[in-house]
Write a structure and sequence with these properties.
The chain is an alpha+beta fold. The chain is built from 5 helices and 8 strands.
Protein backbone atom coordinates (compact mmCIF):
# COMPACT_ATOMS: atom_id res chain seq x y z
CA UNK A 1 0.00 0.00 0.00
CA UNK A 2 2.91 2.39 0.71
CA UNK A 3 4.23 2.05 -2.83
CA UNK A 4 0.78 2.75 -4.35
CA UNK A 5 0.38 5.77 -2.10
CA UNK A 6 3.74 7.15 -3.30
CA UNK A 7 2.76 6.57 -6.95
CA UNK A 8 -0.57 8.33 -6.44
CA UNK A 9 1.15 11.30 -4.78
CA UNK A 10 3.71 11.53 -7.59
CA UNK A 11 0.94 11.49 -10.18
CA UNK A 12 -0.95 14.22 -8.29
CA UNK A 13 2.17 16.41 -8.14
CA UNK A 14 2.84 15.83 -11.85
CA UNK A 15 -0.78 16.63 -12.79
CA UNK A 16 -0.71 19.79 -10.67
CA UNK A 17 2.50 20.96 -12.36
CA UNK A 18 1.05 20.27 -15.80
CA UNK A 19 -2.01 22.39 -15.01
CA UNK A 20 -0.26 25.35 -13.43
CA UNK A 21 3.04 25.62 -15.29
CA UNK A 22 2.92 27.33 -18.68
CA UNK A 23 3.80 25.14 -21.60
CA UNK A 24 6.25 26.80 -23.94
CA UNK A 25 6.98 25.52 -27.35
CA UNK A 26 10.11 26.69 -29.13
CA UNK A 27 9.38 29.53 -31.50
CA UNK A 28 10.42 28.73 -35.04
CA UNK A 29 13.03 31.03 -36.55
CA UNK A 30 11.88 33.40 -39.24
CA UNK A 31 12.85 31.92 -42.60
CA UNK A 32 15.71 33.48 -44.56
CA UNK A 33 16.40 36.17 -41.94
CA UNK A 34 19.96 36.22 -40.59
CA UNK A 35 20.04 36.19 -36.77
CA UNK A 36 21.50 39.72 -36.60
CA UNK A 37 18.80 41.05 -38.92
CA UNK A 38 16.06 39.24 -36.99
CA UNK A 39 17.24 40.76 -33.70
CA UNK A 40 17.22 44.23 -35.26
CA UNK A 41 13.73 43.75 -36.77
CA UNK A 42 12.08 42.62 -33.51
CA UNK A 43 11.93 46.15 -32.06
CA UNK A 44 10.06 47.31 -35.19
CA UNK A 45 7.13 45.06 -34.33
CA UNK A 46 7.34 45.85 -30.61
CA UNK A 47 7.20 49.60 -31.22
CA UNK A 48 4.47 49.24 -33.84
CA UNK A 49 2.21 47.13 -31.60
CA UNK A 50 2.38 49.76 -28.86
CA UNK A 51 0.64 52.13 -31.27
CA UNK A 52 -2.45 49.96 -31.70
CA UNK A 53 -5.49 52.09 -30.87
CA UNK A 54 -3.87 55.46 -31.69
CA UNK A 55 -6.45 57.56 -33.57
CA UNK A 56 -6.28 58.02 -37.33
CA UNK A 57 -5.36 61.58 -38.34
CA UNK A 58 -4.67 62.63 -41.95
CA UNK A 59 -1.04 63.77 -42.16
CA UNK A 60 -0.37 62.54 -38.61
CA UNK A 61 3.04 61.16 -37.73
CA UNK A 62 3.11 61.03 -33.94
CA UNK A 63 1.21 59.35 -31.12
CA UNK A 64 -1.51 62.01 -31.07
CA UNK A 65 -2.69 60.69 -34.44
CA UNK A 66 -1.31 58.75 -37.40
CA UNK A 67 -2.08 58.14 -41.02
CA UNK A 68 -0.74 54.99 -42.70
CA UNK A 69 2.64 56.33 -43.83
CA UNK A 70 2.92 58.42 -40.66
CA UNK A 71 2.71 55.16 -38.70
CA UNK A 72 5.57 53.55 -40.63
CA UNK A 73 7.55 56.80 -40.60
CA UNK A 74 7.13 57.14 -36.81
CA UNK A 75 8.03 53.52 -35.99
CA UNK A 76 11.20 53.48 -38.06
CA UNK A 77 12.17 56.95 -36.87
CA UNK A 78 12.22 55.54 -33.31
CA UNK A 79 14.92 53.14 -34.52
CA UNK A 80 17.00 55.78 -36.25
CA UNK A 81 15.85 55.30 -39.83
CA UNK A 82 14.28 58.17 -41.74
CA UNK A 83 11.76 56.79 -44.23
CA UNK A 84 10.14 58.80 -46.99
CA UNK A 85 6.88 60.29 -45.71
CA UNK A 86 4.31 58.91 -48.17
CA UNK A 87 3.29 55.33 -48.96
CA UNK A 88 4.13 55.77 -52.66
CA UNK A 89 7.59 57.18 -51.87
CA UNK A 90 8.29 54.38 -49.38
CA UNK A 91 7.27 51.78 -51.97
CA UNK A 92 9.44 53.37 -54.67
CA UNK A 93 12.46 54.03 -52.46
CA UNK A 94 12.90 50.93 -50.30
CA UNK A 95 14.43 47.54 -51.17
CA UNK A 96 11.97 44.94 -52.43
CA UNK A 97 11.51 41.64 -50.58
CA UNK A 98 9.95 38.47 -51.94
CA UNK A 99 7.82 37.53 -48.93
CA UNK A 100 6.88 39.56 -45.84
CA UNK A 101 8.80 39.10 -42.61
CA UNK A 102 7.89 40.77 -39.29
CA UNK A 103 8.79 44.45 -39.47
CA UNK A 104 8.53 44.69 -43.26
CA UNK A 105 6.31 47.26 -44.92
CA UNK A 106 3.44 45.94 -47.01
CA UNK A 107 1.78 48.06 -49.64
CA UNK A 108 -1.66 48.35 -51.19
CA UNK A 109 -3.36 50.13 -54.05
CA UNK A 110 -6.75 51.10 -52.65
CA UNK A 111 -8.15 52.62 -55.85
CA UNK A 112 -6.62 51.75 -59.20
CA UNK A 113 -2.93 50.85 -59.29
CA UNK A 114 -1.44 53.81 -57.41
CA UNK A 115 0.23 52.81 -54.12
CA UNK A 116 -1.85 54.58 -51.51
CA UNK A 117 -1.67 52.53 -48.30
CA UNK A 118 1.05 50.93 -46.20
CA UNK A 119 1.19 48.80 -43.05
CA UNK A 120 3.74 46.94 -40.94
CA UNK A 121 3.77 43.16 -41.18
CA UNK A 122 3.67 41.68 -37.65
CA UNK A 123 3.70 37.96 -38.53
CA UNK A 124 1.11 35.22 -38.85
CA UNK A 125 -0.31 36.87 -42.00
CA UNK A 126 -1.32 39.96 -39.96
CA UNK A 127 -0.36 43.60 -40.36
CA UNK A 128 -0.74 46.79 -38.32
CA UNK A 129 -1.93 49.89 -40.13
CA UNK A 130 -3.77 53.18 -39.76
CA UNK A 131 -6.89 52.90 -41.92
CA UNK A 132 -8.98 55.98 -42.52
CA UNK A 133 -12.16 54.13 -41.58
CA UNK A 134 -12.30 52.53 -38.19
CA UNK A 135 -10.66 55.60 -36.77
CA UNK A 136 -7.59 54.01 -35.19
CA UNK A 137 -4.43 51.97 -35.71
CA UNK A 138 -5.40 48.30 -35.80
CA UNK A 139 -4.35 44.82 -36.88
CA UNK A 140 -5.95 43.19 -39.91
CA UNK A 141 -5.46 39.92 -41.74
CA UNK A 142 -3.43 40.17 -44.92
CA UNK A 143 -5.48 37.29 -46.34
CA UNK A 144 -8.82 39.08 -45.90
CA UNK A 145 -10.41 39.47 -49.32
CA UNK A 146 -10.32 43.29 -49.24
CA UNK A 147 -6.57 43.45 -48.50
CA UNK A 148 -5.59 40.45 -50.60
CA UNK A 149 -7.08 42.02 -53.74
CA UNK A 150 -5.27 45.32 -53.13
CA UNK A 151 -1.90 43.95 -52.01
CA UNK A 152 0.96 45.18 -54.24
CA UNK A 153 4.16 44.14 -52.55
CA UNK A 154 6.58 44.21 -49.65
CA UNK A 155 9.61 46.34 -48.91
CA UNK A 156 12.27 45.73 -46.28
CA UNK A 157 13.83 48.87 -44.78
CA UNK A 158 17.49 48.41 -43.87
CA UNK A 159 17.94 49.17 -40.21
CA UNK A 160 21.11 50.82 -38.97
CA UNK A 161 23.11 48.45 -36.78
CA UNK A 162 25.21 51.14 -35.12
CA UNK A 163 23.35 53.92 -33.38
CA UNK A 164 20.63 56.20 -34.60
CA UNK A 165 20.80 58.14 -37.83
CA UNK A 166 19.82 61.80 -37.50
CA UNK A 167 16.32 62.38 -38.82
CA UNK A 168 14.30 65.44 -39.62
CA UNK A 169 10.58 65.45 -40.14
CA UNK A 170 9.63 66.98 -43.49
CA UNK A 171 6.42 68.94 -43.86
CA UNK A 172 3.39 66.74 -44.49
CA UNK A 173 0.74 67.60 -47.02
CA UNK A 174 -1.82 65.12 -45.65
CA UNK A 175 -1.82 61.92 -47.65
CA UNK A 176 -5.28 60.50 -48.11
CA UNK A 177 -5.08 56.75 -48.27
CA UNK A 178 -8.75 55.98 -48.75
CA UNK A 179 -8.31 52.70 -46.81
CA UNK A 180 -11.31 51.40 -44.95
Amino acid sequence: MGRNSLTVRALCVFATLMVFLPVRSPRPAEPDVPQEAASLRSPVVEIALRLEGVPYRPGGSDESGLDCSGLTYHVYQQLGLALPRTAAAQFAGLPEATAPEPGDLIFFAIEGERISHVGIYVGDRKFLHAPSSGGQVRIDLLDADYWNRRYRGVRRPVLPSTGPVPTSEPPVTGESDGAP
